[in-house]
Specification:
Strand order of the largest sheet: 8-9-7-10-13-6-14
Strand content: 25-35%
Structural class: alpha/beta
Number of helices: 15
Largest sheet: 7 strands, parallel
Shape: globular
Distance between the termini: 43 Å
Length: 597
């Protein structure tokens, strides 16, 4: 007898191995095999009594007594491989807990190909909109109850910091049903949570939890649906809301997205009646946003006269202030005062930012640290100075301006601080209570100037979240108050979304086209640029819209130089083109990855 086995390889090829006819080998089981001289874990996808391969190696060991992967999950992996330029094997192995990717033997049944009847009539796609999580959860509650009558529920969250708060809501109403799956668990703990959640359960997890779904799944919930943390930025790249939708369609079950606002794609689906909007809001748009023009001030200045004036008013009125400034550290650049040489991370090529005591430079990407030298190591003449503002430098400036009040960096317990400085991590928690004071958004122009077609939309979401969070006025400072974002900011939210969609249709951006970002990496800089440039020319010859190659930021990350290209497609064929080019680039020994939206 023969088994067709797949391994976690980019090619997704099946390999034949033999086994004794009396052995219990079934599709969906893990087996240990010899692959190119190494003992590897594979998954059996089919069993046959014939093989055209000569000199077939035998299966070394059967690791399961029952299948751990169902035929439905085989199909789900194939569907994902048809959407993204990665093999079905790579997706299938994402469905296996890390504990089982070693040679651990397990007993018991962890899957079932028989779908129990009862809940499929509730299939549909919805977006639950409200500025308060408790309101959204209350709307989920009845849906969860119904789903548990005949099966299971999967709740996906964007960040680990959300888990404890959401878990407390759900466990109160559904005791004994909740299982949490996330990477902070040890491999063994994760396996036990996974094993105990296989039926009639509620799984709470991050984006990867979608791969561990239960065979009797009846309801998928994706909270804070437009959150960028749902985009998987390591191989294989994927966008969680998209594959959650694919799974809901495969199983014909209900799919609920929720949040303060939907993504642009989901809003377009609402307009096209593919998604039903359930607006649970007690209020429409926040009415507390004030845009202040700072163009008369020095354009490079962050601490402007307008900002100081408005902040002083807040303090004089005995109100608290929270300031959003999305730049970590103290200063952003450390450089020589004579030759201008910057202190960069040797592993990531990123400029080091200086600590508040001015003694160490720290890489914001990999955490590399080094003492700051007194004299420039290159020219041996200039002194090393720091330039630019980080959040800790702003804190020190405000200490001097307002010496009689408390100033500090935001923590969830910092409601008693007079002035709080926060980065976007402010929204890594769920807040049911408002911040009793005014808000200030300092570096909105920096967010809008990012090279990203989603920059304006994501800035809009950030402003809205901050506006709902503060009880007083949100002051937004910009040198570009003619930007369409600020023209729409106080209108009904539909108006902004409709205008954003009209621009995307005009310039053929998602959801009106496919866009792929291809990232190539290598330790050899010259070889990498040639490979990236050749890729650009090959795509151009196919009359494909392609932009680049562009240096990624940082250019070098963990020892690899990085270039990216952006590819646009209008006919839906972008996936096949990217897959072909990725295979070609791998033959050149250049690492390549792609994300398609």
């Amino acid at each position: 007898m023969f088994a067709k086995v797949i391994l976690p390889l980019a090619v997704g090829k099946e390999f034949d191995y033999s086994f004794d006819a009396g052995s219990n080998v079934l599709a969906g089981m893990r087996v240990a095999v010899n692959f190119r001289g190494y003992r590897r874990v594979g998954i059996v996808i089919a069993v046959t009594d014939k093989s055209a391969v000569k000199n077939i190696k035998p299966i070394l060991e059967i690791l399961d007594d029952e299948p751990i992967i169902s035929s439905e999950k085989f199909e789900f992996a194939r569907q994902l491989a048809s959407i993204y330029p990665y093999s079905h094997a790579e997706f299938l192995f994402r469905m296996v807990p890390k504990y089982l990717k070693s040679f651990k033997k397990v007993k018991g049944r962890y899957t079932n190909d028989i779908t129990s009847p009862g809940a499929l009539s509730c299939a549909g796609r919805y977006f639950y909109k409200s500025d308060r999580f408790s309101v959204r959860y209350a709307a989920w509650n009845d849906k969860i109850k119904t789903a548990l009558l005949s099966g299971s529920v999967l709740i996906c969250l964007p960040q680990e910091s959300f888990i404890d708060e959401v878990r407390s809501f759900v466990e109160t109403d559904f005791p004994g049903k909740v299982h949490v799956l996330h990477s902070a668990l040890s491999d063994k703990e994760f396996f036990h949570q996974w094993a105990n959640s296989r039926s009639n359960s509620i799984i709470i997890g991050l984006r990867s939890a979608i791969f561990y779904y239960q065979h009797d799944l009846r309801l998928i919930i994706v909270e804070d649906e437009p959150n960028r943390h749902y985009l998987q930025e390591e191989k294989p790249y994927y966008n969680l809301p998209d594959i959650a939708g694919a799974l809901a369609q495969l199983k014909n079950i209900q799919y609920i997205m929720s949040g303060m606002y939907p993504s642009i794609k989901t809003y377009n689906d609402i307009k096209e009646k593919r998604v039903i909007l359930k607006d649970l809001s007690n209020v429409g748009n926040p009415d507390n946003i004030r845009v202040l023009d700072t163009s008369i001030d020095n354009k490079s200045r962050i601490i402007t006269a307008a900002f100081k004036e408005q902040l002083a008013k807040t303090i004089n009125n005995k109100k608290k202030a929270i300031i959003l400034f999305n730049r970590t550290g103290y200063n952003k650049v450390i450089a020589c005062s004579v030759c201008g040489e910057k202190l960069n991370c040797p592993r990531c090529s990123s400029g080091l930012s200086i600590t508040s005591d001015l003694t160490e430079g720290v890489c914001p990407y990999c955490g590399y640290k080094q003492p700051v030298p007194q004299v420039c190591p290159k020219c041996k003449e200039g002194s090393i100075k720091s330039y630019g503002l980080g959040i800790n430098k702003v804190i020190s400036i405000l200490h001097k301006l307002f010496s009689d009040i408390t100033v500090g960096e935001w923590r969830a317990t910092a409601y008693n601080t007079d002035i709080c400085l926060a980065t976007s991590k402010l929204f890594s928690d769920i807040y049911e209570d408002k911040f009793d004071g005014d808000g200030f958004y300092l570096d909105v122009d920096r967010e809008l100037s990012r090279i990203d077609y989603d920059a304006t939309f994501l800035t809009y979401i950030m402003i809205m979240k901050l506006a709902f969070f503060v009880s007083g006025t949100l002051n937004v400072f910009t040198t570009n108050d003619d930007h369409y974002l600020f023209k729409e900011i106080n209108n009904d939210w539909h108006d902004f979304y409709d205008y954003e969609l009209s621009l995307r249709e005009k310039f053929k951006l998602p959801p009106y086209s496919g866009v792929a970002k291809v990232i190539v990496r290598s330790k050899e800089k010259n070889k990498l640029f040639k490979a990236a440039d050749d890729l650009y020319n090959r795509l151009k010859k196919q009359n494909i819209d392609v932009y680049g190659p562009m240096q990624e930021s940082p250019f070098m990350l963990r020892g690899n130089y990085r270039y990216s290209l952006v590819v646009k497609s209008y006919d839906g064929g972008i996936r096949d083109v990217i897959e072909f080019e990725m295979a070609y680039m791998r033959k050149l020994k250049v690492k390549v990855a792609a994300v398609i939206q």
